Amino acid sequence: MDAKVTLSFDQEVIKSAKAFAEKNNISLSRLTEFLYRQLISKDYQSIESLPISDWVNAVAEGQAEYYTKPRKISKSDYYERK
C-alpha cells in the first residue's frame, strides 16, 4: 500500500530530478522510492558509507526494476484544468 509523504528539496534539484525521471519514463515518486530502497537494502551506519555511485550507475544503466501505473489523466489535460 502506498503512503504519501511531503519532502522539501532545492528547486534546482527538483527540476533536474523531474527531467531525469521523465527522460527515463518513471515518476519522480517511483524514482525516489527506488533510491530509498537502495538506501535501506543494506545496513549502512552513516551517510559517508553510502555507495552513491552505485545508485547512479544502477539508475543510469537501467538495472532498476519498477512498475508504473497508467495515468488517469494526461499531463496536458491536468495542466489545462488548472
TrEMBL record:
Taxonomic superkingdom: Bacteria
InterPro entries documented for this protein: DUF6364
Annotated protein name in UniProt: Uncharacterized protein
Organism: Roseivirga seohaensis subsp. aquiponti
